[in-house]
TrEMBL record:
Organism listed in the record: Heliobacterium chlorum
Family per record: Belongs to the AHA1 family.
InterPro entries: ASHA1/2-like_C, START-like_dom_sf
Domain Activator of Hsp90 ATPase homologue 1/2-like C-terminal: 13-141
Pfam families: AHSA1
Source taxon at top rank: Bacteria
Record protein name field: SRPBCC domain-containing protein
Amino acid sequence: MDLIYEFFIHGEPEQIWNVIVSGQETKKVYFGSEIQSTFEIGSPVKYVGPGLDGPSTVHIHGKVLKYEPLKTFVHSYKGGNAYLGGDPRHKESRVSYTLDLIGSCTKLTLIHDHWSEGDPSYESTKKGWWMLLSSIKSLVETGKPLDFSLGLLHDYTE
């Protein structure tokens, strides 16, 4: 049930790390949502952007569980009230990003685990990570994220 993705990206770990933890950069690949956190262990982490509650909709929230700059970022993950209509079956899970320099590339590994049985966001999240990670790869390698319209995202993740 764990979701595991490995991407090899032609870029330095610093470039990829910046896309993962910089609000201005996450906004480019996370469908307009920017990450907000102090990144101290135990501190809140939120992805905030346009959505059902206006321009400051909290799409995902959790707590920082591990943070080693340029190496590992782990946080708990739970959908905000606007995510899937605030379905109470959506439980907390965990997301881990790990970067490893491999030759002239950086390997980005994302593991999304600790899923609860019957979590209604599992299938859409499983599909959505491919889009997000592909956009991170494109942004680092070409300077441009992939252009996914919200209509396409909705159609793809339903």
